[in-house]
Write a structure and sequence with these properties.
Length: about 130
């Protein structure tokens, strides 16, 4: 399982959109992060060691691409967050958001729709 830092998420979001060279990544992230080429190189090296990305030799420069999907890493991060903050309880998390009045009408409707789909797929399985 791959765990990503906030900075690594920024790089992965770029790579999930398209394979890129170090210079392309630096240019895509420059305004948001202020990172120079050396920071991008260091982070990519660390991410290769983790098994999150790899590269192939391009005509002029290495081309980096992800080894893990956005969905795979997102689910892992979500489970980790839920476990760390809410002892694994989705109900506790939703309850905290309800008590904080952090859910809009649209989000509440979306949750109902998601739960309805989950119930329907469970009913099909049994």
């Amino acid at each position: 399982m791959v765990s990503l830092s906030d900075g690594e998420w920024k790089i992965m979001n770029c790579l999930w959109e398209r394979e890129s060279t170090i210079t392309e990544l630096k240019n895509m992230l420059q305004q948001e992060t202020g990172w120079d080429k050396h920071i991008v190189i260091t982070m990519l090296s660390r991410m290769e060691k983790k098994g999150a990305v790899t590269h192939r030799d391009g005509s002029r420069a290495k081309v980096f691409y992800p080894l893990v999907s956005r969905e795979e890493v997102s689910m892992q991060e979500t489970r980790g967050f839920l476990q760390k903050v809410y002892r694994g309880s989705l109900g506790m998390m939703v309850n905290a958001m309800v008590e904080d009045q952090a859910l809009s009408e649209e989000e509440i409707k979306e949750l109902y729709d998601i739960l309805g789909q989950a119930k329907a797929s469970r009913d099909k399985a049994f």
